[in-house]
Amino acid sequence: MIPIRGKSRLCTQLFLKQLSSDSFAFLHTTRIRAQELGTHNVEFLFPRLCGPSVKKLLEEYNIEVSKVPNSGPRGNVLKGDVLSYIKDQKLSFAPSKKHADASKKVVIKKGKTHDDLEMSPSKKTTAQQSVLSKNTIPHAYMNVECNIDKVYEYQERMKKDGFDSPLISFIVKCAAAAARKVPQMNITKHNGQVRSLNSVNIALNKAGNTTTVVKKADTLTVQLISEEISKLVEATDVSMRIYDLGDSGIAEFKAVITPPEVAVLAVGSARCVFEDSDFRQKVRITLSFNNEVISSEIAGSFIGYFKEHLENPVTVCLP
């Protein structure tokens, strides 16, 4: 302990003296009050303390706390005291009127407060597939950040020749080219059977959940992929799916695999970053893959080829 000296010690002594004086006066007044009431037991002058669980029992069985023999320190009523009292008195559940009224109180607002909206069958199917996928497929993830400055440069060259292809067309082309180099990614799993596909078919989900399929994407030019993206084609024999939220301002996200597919790419928004004393355009891509049939080494090899192609589009755009 730190010794108290000087004025601090004097103030402490005066405080303790006043505290002792106040306590003595309070006890003296209590004794006088007890004598006036003709009793030497002053415990009834102090309210019995009890916790929330004890109060709940007292309300549920409509018991007055003064009737319960107490065993707690300083006259406190414990939960065990109430339970013993209930057992000895053979009481049944009988909440007080206040407690019963509170439990029955229901607030009803007049007028219509909401509208029930019917879910479309397609949304119900998508939700069921997502739940099934997350519960049955061991999802694993890999994330990569790609510099797309050269993609924009290539787009400018294409515009001079009269072609206009969005960024997503390049991403589809690069994913298909990477899947062709890593054929272990170009597979599906249906009813426990793994199937290797002969062609690379890429399904594309845009914001709003519209789906299109680019068939044999590895054999198409970026211009032809742009044309195919505008079409709505039924998703069959899809080897990989791409979720594109680039127009939504979302930088990065993870997508859920859609069986029987085993992989999906999540594309975020392109953003400008300051790096190496210059501004760079970059985009983050997240690969979700079924770790039961695709190893981390295979996924890493695929994402490496994808990044290489996207950062150097001439490697897949030129014949």
From TrEMBL:
Native organism taxonomy: Eukaryota, Metazoa, Ecdysozoa, Arthropoda, Chelicerata
UniProt record, GO biological process: pyruvate decarboxylation to acetyl-CoA
Origin: domain of life: Eukaryota
GO molecular function terms listed in the Swiss-Prot or TrEMBL record: acyltransferase activity
Organism per entry: Oedothorax gibbosus
Gene3D superfamilies per UniProt: Chloramphenicol acetyltransferase-like domain (3.30.559.10), E3-binding domain (4.10.320.10)
Classification via PROSITE patterns: PSBD
Similarity field: Belongs to the 2-oxoacid dehydrogenase family.
Stated name of the protein: Peripheral subunit-binding (PSBD) domain-containing protein
PANTHER family in alphabetical order: DIHYDROLIPOAMIDE ACETYL/SUCCINYL-TRANSFERASE-RELATED, DIHYDROLIPOYLLYSINE-RESIDUE ACETYLTRANSFERASE COMPONENT OF PYRUVATE DEHYDROGENASE COMPLEX, MITOCHONDRIAL-RELATED
Span of domain Peripheral subunit-binding (PSBD): 49-86
GO cellular component: mitochondrion; pyruvate dehydrogenase complex
